């Protein structure tokens, strides 16, 4: 029995509500709308300079042309699909679509300026730059910022909550919950600045990047300057003056590598939170109606963080592939990038889905006070670092003659459970000053957090 047509990707099925806004930019329809946008703006730019005797369009006609883009909808999508079925060429279909709209508007006199001196890649590279820039700015970054805001709230709200740290999976010098979240905020803020600083490059220089057809058509015009003005002024991109037929995609490799890096930091966050949940350092807030197991009623599974892990891994796999393959093109042009770039939306979609799960997950956990306090109180041996460091300072100050303080504390604590009473008795018997003894006997694992709380204020 055959099912009715179904979405093949879970991003377009099960998870559409979380990632659907990306489709406005990174879908085939979004790409075609951007192509129409580039073609229309190129028409307007040419008539503005009265190219080849054309007349500048009045404001009403410019608005009518730009409405082809702003009103782009299902009818346009269907018409373009029909044109491409005949042309077997997506960009040529766009050209014919724009020409048809010129006829509708009574502008046949400028029809030959449509796609003038352009190779398909002149339109495509600019369209991808426009759509990816909009997707990052309008969709992905707000989702990323929502996670950053949640992490920042955790950092500040839990800045004073002491937590036993673990290095190599073993008890280590205590920290605070907030400081650990602040580390992730700091890492992600740096990456955000790099992502925001991306240059979205565009080329507009003809079949092999030489302006050959342009110069033959009008030898008197400064075509590089015209190209730069169009790419930067009309489209808001950064002009690339030296290319083959294609824009070299280096900006894409840079962007996707940075997004993948951010994904990996978020993956680290997901695995850490998952681990802390398993240790009881975070408790999960039951969600009404939710089920953790089909057979074990007691369970609350950390599904948000597990889902985020999986989708970050999928996103990175695609972004890594895009970054490594798009920078290579055989000689002046091959079409491997054409198929590859159609998966940009999928790569961002998995990242978006992970961001959505992380944001939700961070709102569904609470500090596990009982486990945090119990672990701190069960690991007094972590104060061995503090004691041997103070002894060293006392030796240097001439208030102690103890030899090899580290070895002394290693003998007392390594691989052993030590109680508060054990440490107090040990400190009282040390050859150190009275002030040092007072500081050490007053110390507890919960207060041995240094300036962890104050470090949160380092966040931008």
Keyword list:
Ribonucleotide Reductase Protein R1, domain 1, two-stranded parallel ribbon, mainly alpha, 460 residues, two-stranded antiparallel ribbon, Fumarase C, Chain B, domain 1, Fumarase C, Chain A, domain 2
Q: Span from first to last CA? A: 58 Å
Fraction of residues in helix: 55-70%
What number of domains?
3
CATH fold field value of the largest domain: Fumarase C, Chain A, domain 2
Q: What Rg do the Cα atoms give?
A: 31 Å
Any overview of this molecule?
This protein has 460 residues and is mainly alpha-helical. The protein folds into 3 domains: 18-116, Fumarase C, Chain B, domain 1 (Orthogonal Bundle); 121-287 and 296-369, Fumarase/aspartase (Central domain) (Fumarase C, Chain A, domain 2, Up-down Bundle); 380-444, Ribonucleotide Reductase Protein R1, domain 1 (Orthogonal Bundle). Helices cover 60% and strands 5% of the residues. β1 (162-167) and β2 form a beta hairpin. It is elongated and about 100 Å long. The chain starts with 15 loop residues before the first helix and ends in a 5-residue tail after the last helix. The relative contact order is 0.10. The mean pLDDT is 95. Residues 329-449 form the Adenylosuccinate lyase PurB C-terminal domain.
């Amino acid at each position: 029995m055959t099912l009715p047509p179904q979405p093949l990707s879970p991003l377009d099925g099960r998870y559409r509500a979380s990632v659907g806004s990306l489709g406005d930019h990174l879908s085939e329809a979004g790409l075609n709308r951007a192509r129409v946008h580039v073609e229309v703006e190129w028409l307007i730019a040419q008539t503005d300079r009265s190219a080849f005797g054309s007349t500048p369009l009045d404001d009403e006609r410019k608005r009518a042309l730009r409405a082809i883009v702003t009103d782009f909808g299902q009818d346009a999508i269907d018409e373009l699909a029909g044109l491409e079925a005949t042309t077997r060429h997506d960009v040529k279909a766009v050209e014919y679509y724009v020409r048809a709209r010129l006829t509708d508007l009574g502008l046949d006199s400028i029809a030959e300026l449509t796609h003038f001196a352009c190779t398909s890649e002149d339109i495509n590279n600019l369209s991808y730059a426009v759509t990816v820039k909009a997707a990052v700015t309008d969709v992905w970054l707000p989702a990323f910022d929502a996670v950053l805001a949640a992490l920042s709230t955790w950092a500040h709200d839990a800045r004073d909550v002491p937590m036993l740290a673990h290095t190599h999976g073993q008890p280590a010098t205590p920290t605070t919950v907030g400081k650990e979240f602040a580390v992730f905020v700091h890492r992600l803020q740096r990456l955000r600045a790099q992502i925001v600083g991306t240059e979205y490059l565009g080329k507009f220089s003809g079949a092999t990047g030489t302006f050959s057809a342009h110069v033959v058509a009008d030898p008197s015009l400064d075509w590089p300057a015209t190209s730069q003005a169009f790419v930067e002024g009309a489209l808001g991109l950064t002009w690339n003056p030296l290319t083959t037929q294609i824009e070299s995609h280096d900006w894409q490799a840079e962007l996707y590598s940075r997004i993948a890096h951010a994904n990996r930091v978020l993956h680290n966050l997901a695995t850490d939170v998952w681990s802390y949940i398993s240790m009881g350092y975070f408790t999960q807030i039951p969600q009404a109606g939710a089920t953790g197991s089909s057979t074990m009623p007691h369970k609350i599974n950390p599904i948000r963080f597990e889902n985020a892990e999986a989708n970050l891994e999928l996103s990175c796999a695609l972004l890594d592939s895009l970054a490594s393959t798009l920078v290579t093109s055989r000689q002046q042009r091959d079409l491997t990038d054409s198929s590859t770039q159609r998966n940009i939306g999928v790569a961002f979609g998995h990242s978006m889905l992970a961001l959505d799960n992380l944001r939700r997950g961070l709102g569904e956990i609470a500090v596990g006070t009982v486990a945090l306090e119990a672990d701190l109180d069960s690991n007094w041996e972590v104060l061995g670092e503090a004691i041997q460091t103070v002894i060293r300072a006392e030796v240097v100050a001439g208030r102690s003659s103890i030899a090899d303080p580290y070895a002394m504390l290693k003998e007392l604590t390594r691989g052993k459970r030590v109680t508060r009473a054990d440490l107090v008795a040990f400190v009282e018997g040390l050859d150190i000053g009275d002030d040092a003894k007072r500081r050490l006997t007053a110390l507890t694992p919960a207060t041995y957090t240094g300036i962890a709380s104050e470090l949160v204020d380092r966040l931008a």
